[in-house]
Amino acid sequence: MAMAIMAGAHFSSGWALAQQYYPGSQAAPALAPFEASAVQALMENPDPNRRRDAALSLGQRGSAATVSRLAGAAAYDPDRSVRVAAGDAIAMIKRRSAGDWAVRPPAPSGYRQLVESWYQLYLNRAPDPTGVRDFVNRMARGATPEDIQASIIGSDEYYRLHGSRPASWIAGMYADVLNRSARPDEIRHWMGMYERLGGSREQTSLEFLRTARTELSQRP
């Protein structure tokens, strides 16, 4: 009994750290009912097997809105198998959601969820309400998914996440948008495009996304 109490205390303290040091676990997009149930198990169930199963389930069926909760588990869960499962789930979600915008044009009712998923996918954090509202309003006025993603990918924040170097930033676009590594000739091509566009990250990423749409739409 004492050991069970100690294990529960360890689990609780681990998630106390997550809540303190990983703000995305407190302020993130709304979840579907299935996702909310799985996230609750991931965050509150004292059985590591149940938490691991919840993470795997989110990886298989969850949306990008669950990434911040999974990231908290990947960083702070006291059980290694849960941390690994949460990290794998994040990778699965990113692979699955990367091309959705290219093959299924979003309906106006889905603009907000789509924008929120891009914050998770590209910036690995919960969205700020002002930014989401501005992007949703732009889409309502006719901006394309490429336009909005280019604003995020071209931002200083995304650039810093990828080393603040043009070549590593381009490699980051391949990893995040196409879920693959860039070949050396592809890096050279987009470095040339970046220079021809006067060093504009937003314009370069817009051209990249327009090209990426073709590759994404042709995937099985």
Short summary:
With 220 residues, the protein is mainly α.
Structure notes:
It is a single chain. This protein folds into two domains: 2-97, no CATH class; 100-217, Phycobilisome linker domain (serine acetyltransferase, domain 1, Orthogonal Bundle), CATH 1.10.3130.20. The protein is 73% helix and 0% strand. The protein has 13 helices and no strands. The chain is globular. The model is unreliable at 1-27 (pLDDT under 50).
Give short descriptive properties of this protein:
single chain; 220 residues; mainly alpha; serine acetyltransferase, domain 1; 0% strand; globular
Terminal residue distance: 52 Å
Estimated helix fraction? over 70%
Order of helices and strands: HHHHHHHHHHHHH
Tally of helical runs? 13
Could you say how many structural domains there are in total?
2
Radius of gyration: 19 Å
What is the CATH H-level superfamily of the largest domain? Phycobilisome linker domain
Backbone shape: globular
Number of strands: 0
CATH class category label of the largest domain = Mainly Alpha
Biggest beta sheet attributes: none
Quick check: average pLDDT?
Answer: 85
Low-confidence stretches: 1-27
Estimate the strand proportion.
under 5%
Please tell me the CATH architecture of the largest domain by its name. Answer: Orthogonal Bundle
